[in-house]
Amino acid sequence: MNFTKTIMTTASAALISSAAFAGSHMSMEMTIVSWGGAYSASQLKAYHEPYSAKTGVTILNDDSSSTAVAQLRAMNEANNITWDVVDVEAAPAMQLCDEGLALEIDPDTMLAPAPDGTPASEDFGDMLVSECFIPQIVYSTTFGYRTDLVGDNPPDSVCAVFDTKTYPGKRSLFSVPINQMEWALLCDGVAKSDIYDVLATEEGQDRALAKLDTIKGDVIWVSSGSDTPQLLADGEVIMGATYNGRLFSLIEEQKQPVAMIWDGQVMDLDGWIIPAGLSPERQARALDYIMFATDTQRLADQAKYISYGPARASSAPLVGKHADLGIDMAPHMPTAPENLSRAFLMNYDFWADYRDDLDAKFQAWLAK
User: Fold this and answer.
1) Is the pLDDT of residue 347 over 60?
2) 3-state class of 89 per DSSP?
3) Are the beta carbons of 82 and 277 closer than 8 angstroms?
4) CA-atom Rg of the chain in angstroms
5) CA-to-CA distance for 227 and 233, rounded, in angstroms?
6) Euclidean distance between CA atoms 165 and 167, whole angstroms
7) Contact indicator for 103, 283 with CB cutoff of 8 Å
């Protein structure tokens, strides 16, 4: 998700003290790493600006989340951690936690309880997939298509991406194995319940790549969540994969001739990690920010700006209308019942275990 290089909120220059950390002085500037575009804009409105107004802290937003694992490994090796809070998906968070590169979090002491006193561990529930991961939103990777380029037969299946006869033209996919390989197997006849068992075998991996071979020449490979929306807006692709929030912005805010395919949407979690190895002062500030940004109201507030479902159960009833458009946001969430019924659920453990190996294999295939 890469769009704007830096989002910065202004703050006072005076040092402050925080009651949450017994009056100790904390850094007046922090770097938060995210994905850019409409997503970072929603964080700016829901989290960063209110936090800066409350504390006087300047937040620098770095849009490097797509390379977070590699960069945090390099920072750790150099003993120079320059990031304070990092937005990552669940599987990379599990990788970072397993490698000791992310701070372990006790949700009931480090995160705010629900307004009725329900402990954070219960409020987040099954979203707490790693000891180091602080869930923020439920999102999906899915497909958008140009309504003016599909004639009278709009696609309603994810497998339309492999149907170049009915839907001739370029399509865009991410240049990484995650999601692309699941879709390939799904559209090659593998049942949803069997996909990860198949993908764990060399034969299954080769089968997925063989299916992708059938459209390789028709694909524009993208590396950022902003690429497909731009390609769709410019009419350079007939359909393409990106995040549902990006498509919401393209369709509802920009009024482009684009529609969304919810079938086969790959549901995933996105949230925060705090890098291990921060100074006590920077770690205290990061924890203070996390406590603030993941409370019930803040997570609900983010849904005013983007169509991602909040990760806390107590936040869901507070989701209302879009802050600017005035439309009801609930039907646009990947977790809306009609959308959820056609979803494919990400296996975080699989990708935490296989991501490095399949990245290498996928990139070798791309280079052929």
Assistant:
1) yes
2) strand
3) no
4) 21
5) 10
6) 6
7) yes
Q: What is the mean pLDDT of residues 107-119?
A: 97
pTM for the predicted model, two decimal places: 0.78
Instruction: Report pLDDT digits (tens) over 124-151.
Output: 998 999 999 999 999 999 999 999 999 8
Q: In the numeric block, which tokens belong to residue 315?
A: 């936040």
pLDDT band of 27, cuts 50, 70, 90? low
Domains of the chain: 27-138+269-340 (3.40.190.10), 141-267+346-367 (3.40.190.10)
Expressed in angstroms, the distance from the first to the final Cα of the chain is 26
Report, as an integer, the average pLDDT of 8-28. 38
> Which H helix or E strand runs over 102?
none
3-state SS assignment for residue 251? helix
User: If we measure between CA atoms, which residue out of 83, 89, 108 comes closest to residue 274?
Assistant: 83
Give the whole-number percent of the chain exceeding pLDDT 90. 83
CB 48 within 8 A of CB 298: no
Distances (CA, A) of 118 to 108, 122, 168, 207, 285: 10, 7, 52, 46, 24
Amino acid type, 85: V
Neighbouring residues of 25: CB distance < 8 A, sequence distance ≥ 6: 15, 16, 17, 281
Amino acid at 360: A
Closest CA to 204 of 358, 349, 352: 358
State whether residue 172 is helix, strand or coil.
strand
What are the tens digits of pLDDT across the range 61-80? 999 998 999 999 999 999 99
Distance between CA atoms of residues 195 and 181, nearest Å: 9
Phi-psi category of 282—alpha, beta or left, where left has phi over 0 and alpha has psi -120 to 50? alpha
The values of phi and psi at residue 51, to 5°, are: -70, -40
State the DSSP code for 263.
E
Closest listed residue to residue 309, CA positions, set 278, 285, 340: 340
Residue 22 has pLDDT above 80, yes or no: no
Give mean pLDDT, residues 99-105: 97
